[in-house]
Amino acid sequence: MPSRLIEDLHPDLQPLCREFLKRCQAAGLDILITCTYRSRAEQDQLYAQGRDGNTGARVTNARGGQSAHNFTLQGRPAARAFDIVPMVGGKPMWRATHPAWQQAGAIGMTLGLNWYGRPGAPFREYPHFELARG
Ligand SMILES: [Zn+2]
C-alpha cells in the first residue's frame, strides 16, 4: 500500500505540506492526501496500468525509481511529492474543472511547490505537488 503519511515525505517537504493543509482549511477547502511515498514495486505496478495489455487509462509516465514519490534518504521513505484530492460534500472531487483544484493549486504554488496542474507543467497531473529542486 502506498503511504499517505506526511512523515514519509522529504524533511523539507513535511512542513510545506502541513502549511498547505492549514491554508487550504483556512480557505474552506477539505483536502485529502491520497499518496505520499510509494515503493519502486508499487510504482512499477502503477506504470503497468494501461500498458502491456493491461486495461484502463495510463496513470503515470514514471517507472519504479523515476517518480518523486519513490525518493528515499538513507533507506527511509522521503517522497519529494504528494498527491491530493479535494473533498466536496464529503466525496472526492476528481473532475479537474472544479474550482477547488485551482484554489488548492494556487495555495501550493504560493508555498513554492511545483504543482503539475498548472499550465505548462511537464505533464498535466492535477493531484501532484512536488518539492522544487533546491
Ligand atoms: Zn504524484
TrEMBL record:
GO terms for biological process: proteolysis. Residues 8-71 form the D-alanyl-D-alanine carboxypeptidase-like core domain. Its EC number is 3.4.-.-. It is an enzyme of class 3 (hydrolase). One of its GO terms (molecular function) is peptidase activity. The keyword Hydrolase applies. InterPro entries: VanY-like_core_dom, Zn_M74/Hedgehog-like. It comes from the Bacteria. Keywords: Hydrolase. Transmembrane segments: none annotated. This is Peptidoglycan L-alanyl-D-glutamate endopeptidase CwlK. It comes from Chitinivorax tropicus. The lineage of its organism: Bacteria, Pseudomonadati, Pseudomonadota, Betaproteobacteria, Chitinivorax.
